[in-house]
Amino acid sequence: MHLSKDRIGGLLILLFCLVYAWQSQNIRLLPFQLNSAFHARTMPEVLAVLGIGLSLLVIVFPSSRDTLSLRGLNWPLGLAFLVLMSIYGLAVRPVGFLLATSLFLMIGFAMLGERNIARLVLVAVPLVVLFWVLMNYGLSVFIEPLPAFLRS
């Protein structure tokens, strides 16, 4: 069995799903949830089992003969995205979700080649506001929308 792109991807997903399944056991349950059929661990466990099963299928069954090649990848862009994501992670609390996430998306789109500023704003801002509204009012998960100095 040779290591193709598909099998390497399957191995990475298998590793991720195994760690995810292991970490899902750290989800605390309330005493009345211990014997219930559906609780906070149920979906993570189901997703982990499905991911493990599907990744094993990708690893075991024949795949394409494409071998992994690290040549031709845009490494500077990938590293720039890692830096951008790190800055976003550090900025989201002090700057606020709406501004930090909108800037993150607009800068990310610009790094990928989009040069139309109107399109950047018209895609990123409504998407971020819609997601914030969904999280806050649809799922009751509070995300601080504004920078610290604008909060009352």
What does the model show?
- The protein is an all-alpha fold and 152 residues long.
- It folds into 2 domains: 5-60; 75-138, no CATH class.
- 64% of the residues lie in helices and 0% in strands.
- It has 5 helices and no strands.
- It has helices at residues 5-24, 42-60, 75-95, 97-111, 117-138.
- Helix 1 (5-24) packs antiparallel against helix 2 and helix 3 (75-95) runs antiparallel to helix 4.
- The longest helix is centred in the C-terminal third of the chain and has 22 residues, at 117-138.
- It is flat, with a radius of gyration of 21 Å.
- The model has no long low-confidence stretch (mean pLDDT 89).
Brief summary:
By secondary structure, this protein is an all-alpha fold. It contains five helices and no strands.
How does the SSE layout of this entry go?
Blueprint: H1 5-24, H2 42-60, H3 75-95, H4 97-111, H5 117-138
Helix pairs in contact: 1-2, 3-4, 4-5
What is the number of domains?
A: 2
Provide the low-confidence segments as ranges.
Answer: none
Spell out the helices and strands N to C. Answer: HHHHH
Between the first and last Cα atoms, what is the distance in angstroms? 62 Å
Task: Indicate the percent of residues in helices.
Answer: 55-70%
Largest sheet: none
Q: What proportion of the residues form beta strands (DSSP E)?
A: under 5%
Tell me the total number of β-strands. Answer: 0
Mean pLDDT equals 89
Structural class: mainly alpha
What is the 3D form? flat
The number of distinct helices, counting runs of at least 4 residues, comes to 5
Radius of gyration: 21 Å
